[in-house]
């Protein structure tokens, strides 16, 4: 086999493919995953953020944190209050934003897509996803619990995924579980700037 034929044979039998994989591995090594996701609906009525801490938050056993803000509710969720499921469509994050003793609860779920950020240079990328507000119906009268008990409202969310230095909340915030009570005082309108 002459030199040219031998070179062709090596390339066809894996030499070229190996080089391709090495290039692909080098490119993948230049990517990092986001640790901060900041999202809002198109009208600016709902704001939600998800943070991944490098270390486990003291007293929570987990390194995840969610903040949720709408026109009547402002809450932060830590530890077991943040429910996370990794699926084929991305990461699914759920928190309970309202809880009552006799009429059920309301949860908010948002989907986090997979995102690759450059290890060097820009560490932020725009993302589009979905948020789901679920009303979980529950009555102390057993006969009224018949039929569909979960009602869904889906909203588009837009925002950014980024790699940032995530600060740890102060100890007094880590020592308590977010209250399930519904705030009675509406937040000021200035906290909800309208998108132009």
What's the gist of this structure?
The protein is α+β, with helices and mostly antiparallel strands and 196 residues long.
Look at the helices and sheets and give the structural class. alpha+beta
Coarse morphology: elongated
Number of strands: 11
What's the Cα radius of gyration?
Answer: 23 Å
Describe the largest sheet.
Answer: 9 strands, antiparallel
Order the strands across the largest sheet as they lie in space.
5-4-3-2-11-10-8-7-6
Q: How far apart are the first and last residues' alpha carbons, in Å?
A: 70 Å
Order of helices and strands: HEEEEEEEEEEEH
On the 0 to 100 scale, the average pLDDT is 75
Residues in helices, as a percent range: 10-25%
Task: Count helical runs.
Answer: 2
Strand content: 35-45%
In the predicted model, the low-confidence regions spanning at least 5 consecutive residues are: 57-61, 174-193
Number of domains: 2
Give a verbal description of the structure.
It is a single chain. The protein has two domains: 31 residues; 151 residues. Helix content is 15%, strand content 39%. The chain is built from two helices and eleven strands; from the N terminus they run αβββββββββββα. A nine-stranded antiparallel β-sheet has the order 5-4-3-2-11-10-8-7-6, with no helix packed on it. Strands 1-9 form a two-stranded antiparallel sheet. The chain is elongated.
List the helices and strands and how they pair.
Elements lengths: L2 H26 L2 E2 L3 E5 L6 E6 L11 E6 L4 E5 L4 E5 L2 E10 L4 E9 L4 E2 L5 E14 L12 E13 L8 H4 L22
List keywords for this structure.
2 helices, 196 residues, elongated, alpha+beta, two-stranded antiparallel ribbon
């Amino acid at each position: 086999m002459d030199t040219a034929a031998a070179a062709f044979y090596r390339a066809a039998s894996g030499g070229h493919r190996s080089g391709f994989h090495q290039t692909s591995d080098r490119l993948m090594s230049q990517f990092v995953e986001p640790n901060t996701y900041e999202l809002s609906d198109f009208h600016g009525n709902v704001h939600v953020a998800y943070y991944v801490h490098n270390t486990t938050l003291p007293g929570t056993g987990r390194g995840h944190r969610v903040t949720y803000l709408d026109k009547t509710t402002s809450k932060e969720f830590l530890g077991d209050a943040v429910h996370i499921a990794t699926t084929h469509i991305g990461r699914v994050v759920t928190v309970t934003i309202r809880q009552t003793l006799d009429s059920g609860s309301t949860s908010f779920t948002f989907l986090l897509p997979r995102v690759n950020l450059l290890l060097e240079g820009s560490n932020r990328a725009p993302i589009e996803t979905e948020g789901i507000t679920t009303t979980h119906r529950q009555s102390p009268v057993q006969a009224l619990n018949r039929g569909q008990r979960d009602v869904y409202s889906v909203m588009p969310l837009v925002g950014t995924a980024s790699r940032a230095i995530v600060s740890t909340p102060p100890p007094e915030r880590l020592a308590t579980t977010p209250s399930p009570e519904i705030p009675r005082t509406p937040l000021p309108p200035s906290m909800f700037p309208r998108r132009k």
